[in-house]
Amino acid sequence: MPSNGQVRAQVLVVDDEHDHAEAMAEALRKPGHVCTIVHSLAAAKDELVHGHFDVIVTDLVMESEVAGLEVLAFARAQQPHAETIMITAHGDIPTAKKALQGGAYDFIEKPIDLVVLRNVVYHAAEAVMLRGQNEALKGQVDSAYGFEGILGESLAMRQVITMVRQLAPSTLPVLVTGESGTGKELVARAIHTLSKRASRRYVTFNAAGQAESLLEDQLFGHVRGAFTGADKDREGVFEYSDRGTVFLDEIGDMPLTMQPKLLRVLETGDIVRLGANEPKRIDVRLVSATNRDLKKMASDGQFREDLYFRLKGAEIHIPPLRDRREDIPLLVNHAIGKYSAELNRTRPTITQPALMRLVAYDWPGNVREVFQLIHRMVVMTAADAIDVRDIPDEIRALDDASEGPAQTRAGLAGVGLDKLEKEAIRQTLAMTAGNRELTAQMLGIGERTLYRKLKEYGLR
Fold first, then answer.
1. Domain 323-457 adopts which CATH fold?
2. Does the reported pTM lie above 0.70?
3. Domain 147-319, CATH 3.30.470.20 — does that match?
């Protein structure tokens, strides 16, 4: 589909009334859309298998009362990038609303206003086009910086990325677990960006540290007069995010008394504003995150077990940085480039001893701590290279204490150089989880030299 400012889409028109289908197609061809017309569910399925479409316009009732819903479901399976618009009679509006929950872009009521039809198709096509442009741009960014901002070369992070790709197109609620600072929100945002909801709202909400009454108001909203000061209606997070994604961070800290209300939303898809009697149906993809052990909390009665299982439609666990040290050089170098560009200064290099110190550090604050530290070092270092002396004293002190310098010096006395070299290679291999390229880089030797020494010392 062209992106030259004029949105022209490939449109599939599905309607068993021939004249009606021709009228819609003719109206859509005038602004430049290319239309294919079919008159049955079977023909629509055949076109969706063999053709490529940006927008599908389908009548709801054809050979059956829900044929249009079958077209929608088949289109979502065959061409998930496309948007589907439902044509419906007045009496079928409840069914059309169900179609929206099933992923339809919109519905138009008969008799059709052709201007309205053109406008809805234009906006649907525009959403498809923008999503395609964003995916192309993200592909360029991914090739340079990682995947959706998630940086990592380790097997563990490749597994995380694979799960994100697999889960994003589904509607399953996802629970993201991991220590603070590991990048749980990046994973949540990636799930949204790669989903069919990417053009809709993505809202982050922290569930911790708030009074129950305020939390309920923020999540579900209120009607005018619900409480003192409620002088107008207000949408809550779920209603505001309808047809989008809500990321509930620190879900393990949500008060027990609020958990049944969240469970009701997950089970029924209904929310009730404070002060209202009538529920309102919403369609929200929920991604939640915690650094706590919800399973243990549930067994201890500190978290509702039924809510835990609802939240955990699928779980993505992000391991701490100390368990995937081979990712540290990538993170460090990316952060150096990022903050050097922000400061409009020449990018400094980092010496091998400094990099080894950073790889050896346990990073209790995980990825967030890496970026904070490198930002500080880039700002404070005027030299062309970041060296060990530029690493903050508190980190160097921790490393030195863990090494036990006096004991190390005494223990090294009289040890042959070949044994020292073998131990250095062995420990560096363990630190990098067997990454030979990184091991050679950290030791300051060539990969061919490393291979020779591995063979010489019988190391694997």
1. Helicase, Ruva Protein; domain 3 (1.10.8)
2. no
3. no
